[in-house]
Amino acid sequence: MLKKLLNISEPTKPQTPYQAIGGESATRLLANRFYDFMENDPHAKDLLDIHPKPLDSIRVRFFEFLSGWLGGPGLFEKKYGHPRLRARHLPFKVTAHQRDLWMLCMNQALEEVVTDKLLRRQLQASFYQLATHMINTD
Fold first, then answer.
1. Contact 21/69 with Cβ under 8 angstroms?
2. Helix, strand, coil % over all residues of the chain, rounded to 5
3. What is the number of structural domains in the chain?
4. Most distant CA pair in the chain, distance
5. Integer distance in angstroms from the first to the last C-alpha of the chain?
6. What is the CATH number of the domain that holds 59?
7. Are 38 and 44 in contact (CB under 8 A)?
8. Model confidence pTM above 0.70
């Protein structure tokens, strides 16, 4: 009552990246566009070659991971437990070159899906840091 009389509003909660890019539909689009670029960009062939085919199930798992990683529902964790990304990638040789190819695809997907330039740059930096952490081979 006092807040209303004094015309004081509640502070707005900051949006998560998940909310800022458009929630579930945009997150699903980001995951799918990432794999679309991987499948169709000849520069990403080396990266595509190490992924199991068809890519249908990995597209879904990536969307589920991105949902929680971006601050939305923790779909991946509910199904599979903690992501433990580095541990999950240890059976595969991940090089700096593969990281760069991964970022090539992700940057193209981010360009299409994330309209806010500052948020896009922040996500690019976060994805780069995450992708670099996956490197396990010189």
1. no
2. 70, 0, 30
3. 1
4. 65
5. 63
6. 1.10.490.10
7. yes
8. yes
